[in-house]
Design brief:
This protein has two helices and no strands. With about 80 residues, the chain is mainly alpha-helical.
C-alpha cells in the first residue's frame, strides 16, 4: 500500500506537470494566433483560419486521446491476465 506522503508527492508532481503543460499550450496558442494573423492579415480570412485551426486542434486532440485510451485499456487487459 502506498503511504499518504508518497501519494501526495505523486499527485503534486502530476499537478505541476499539468500546469506546465497548460502554460506551454497557452504559449503555442499565442504563437499560432500570431502566425494566422501574419499569414491571413484580412479580418475575414482570419476568422476562417482560426476556425480551421480550432478544427485541426480538436481532431488532433481526439486522435491522441483515443490512442491513449486504447493503450490504457490494453495495459489493463495484460495486467489482468
Amino acid at each position: 500500500m502506498v503511504d499518504l506522503k508518497q501519494e501526495v508527492r505523486n499527485k503534486t508532481s502530476d499537478f505541476i506537470l499539468a500546469a506546465f503543460g497548460f502554460v506551454a499550450g497557452l504559449a503555442w496558442n499565442e504563437a499560432i494566433k500570431a502566425l494566422i494573423e501574419e499569414v491571413f492579415p484580412s479580418h475575414n480570412n482570419s476568422v476562417w483560419a482560426k476556425l480551421a485551426y480550432a478544427l485541426l486542434v480538436t481532431l488532433v486532440f481526439v486522435l491522441v486521446s483515443t490512442y491513449f485510451i486504447r493503450s490504457s485499456q490494453k495495459i489493463e487487459e495484460v495486467a489482468q491476465k
